[in-house]
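Protein-L-isoaspartate O-methyltransferase domain-containing protein 2
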Amino acid sequence: MLIHGLRACFSSEPISFKNRQQDNSNVDEDDRNVVLLEKAKFAQDFSNFAAEIRKTIKALNEQLMEALDLQPGLSFLNLGSGTGYLSSMVELILGPLGVNHAVELHSDVTEYAKQKLDFFIRTSDSFDKFDCSEPSFVTGNGLEISLDCSQCDRVDCGPGVQMEQEQYTKRPLKVGGVLVLPLQEK
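Structure:
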């Protein structure tokens, strides 16, 4: 009966609500238990998948932070800063003499990043505003940064930046600085 109900959902013929109710009323207790078990298995699989994603993101962030080789007092530019998570973590490393800029293409994402930073500052017990370089979030195209802007010691490019745009990402980079770009395999 359960299989019949699923087939009806994918049928090209219109199915009335009454027919669906009749299909459901014919499902016996064993079929309901199978559906509940499948839902429970899906929830567990999804939970495991989400845990793996969190581990992967943590590992990538650790690799990124290592590649950036951040030190107190450096200047940092985050092109494609997204929700501002990286820039907010970087502020704690750069210290009060560092410079921390974040450029995001989408204004709603920039506003979200500002809100999250404000929340972090207001609620964190360990945050000291005078001991970090708070990020400056701006909306714009990071690939259009003027050549006469000051240059940064470290530049990170978000996943939206393509390898063929590399020449534009080097503009704001000081000689001897570190540029981190996403590697896109074809």
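The chain has two domains: 2-8+14-56, 69-180.
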